[in-house]
Design goal:
The complex is a heterodimer of chains A (about 120) and B (about 110). Chain A is mostly beta strands and about 120 residues long. Chain A has strands at about 5, 10-15, 20, 25, 30-40, 45-50, 55-60, 65-70, 75-80, 85-95, 105, 110-115. Chain A is built from no helices and twelve strands. The chains are: A mainly beta (about 120), B mainly beta (about 110).
C-alpha cells in the first residue's frame, strides 16, 4: 500500500527566505508524485507533478521539486518566499500499477510567511 | 479560474433535510470524484465514477448518495446527515486512459449540518 509522509505540519519562514517542505513516500515502485496547494476557503490546485523524465520539476509560482528515488523523497522548494505563498500544501502519490488506483495524500503542511 | 464548477459554495441544512451538491466539468474527463475534507486535514476519498459508473465507494454511509447523470455532471445527494458530516466537499475530475493521477479540483461546497 502507498503511504506519504510530510514532515512538519507547520512551517514558518520569513518573507524572502527559502521554503522547504518535505515529502517522503513509501512504495516498492516509485509512484507518480504531486504537490497540491490549498489557499483558505478554496479547493486544491496542482503546483507541480513528476511522472517521468527529468527529476527536477518546475511548477507554478516559482516552486520546484526534485524526485530522489534513493531517498524516496519529493521535497518542495522555493528560493524566496512571498506572503502570498501562505497556504496548506499537500504531497500526493498515484501508483503506477494496480487496478483500483487512487490519489493518496500526505497529512499536509501549513506554510506561514512572516513579514 | 477553475474548470470544475461546484454549486452551491455554501450550504446549511438540518438533520432532516434533503439537499444536493452539484459538480460540472467540461474538460472531457471520464473520471469524477467526491472527496470530503475536514479542517486542517487532507481530502478523504468518498466515491469515484469512471465512464459514468461507480467504481469506488469508500464505505461511505448511505446518507450520502452519489449520482453521475452524464459525463460532465456529478451530484451528491444528502439526506438525514449528522453534524459530524459538516465539512468541505470537493469534486474532482481526471482522464481515465493514460491517467497519471492528475486531478482537477473544484473550489468545494462547504456544508454545515445543524
Amino acid at each position: 500500500a502507498q503511504s506519504v509522509t510530510q514532515l512538519g505540519s507547520h512551517v514558518s519562514v520569513s518573507e524572502g527566505a527559502l521554503v522547504l517542505l518535505r515529502c517522503n513516500y513509501s512504495s516498492s515502485v516509485p509512484p507518480y508524485l504531486f504537490w497540491y496547494v490549498q489557499y483558505p476557503n478554496q479547493g486544491l490546485q496542482l503546483l507541480l507533478k513528476y511522472t517521468t523524465g527529468a527529476t527536477l520539476v518546475k511548477g507554478i509560482n516559482g516552486f520546484e521539486a526534485e524526485f530522489k528515488k534513493s531517498e524516496t523523497s519529493f521535497h518542495l522548494t522555493k528560493p524566496s518566499a512571498h506572503m502570498s505563498d501562505a497556504a496548506e500544501y499537500f504531497c500526493a502519490v498515484w501508483p503506477k500499477i494496480g487496478s483500483a488506483r487512487q490519489l493518496t495524500f500526505g497529512s499536509g503542511t501549513q506554510l506561514t510567511v512572516l513579514p | 479560474d477553475t474548470e470544475v464548477t461546484q454549486t452551491p459554495k455554501h450550504l446549511v441544512m438540518g438533520m432532516t433535510n434533503k439537499k444536493s451538491l452539484k459538480c460540472e466539468q467540461h474538460m472531457g474527463h471520464r473520471a469524477m470524484y467526491w472527496y470530503k475534507q475536514k479542517a486542517k486535514k487532507p481530502p478523504e476519498l468518498m466515491f469515484v465514477y469512471s465512464y459514468e459508473k461507480l467504481s469506488i465507494n469508500e464505505s461511505v454511509p448511505s446518507r450520502f448518495s452519489p449520482e453521475c447523470p452524464n459525463s460532465s455532471l456529478l451530484n451528491l445527494h444528502l439526506h438525514a446527515l449528522q453534524p459530524e458530516d459538516s465539512a468541505l466537499y470537493l469534486c474532482a475530475s481526471s482522464r481515465v486512459g493514460q491517467n497519471t493521477g492528475e486531478l482537477f479540483f473544484g473550489e468545494g461546497s462547504r456544508l454545515t449540518v445543524l
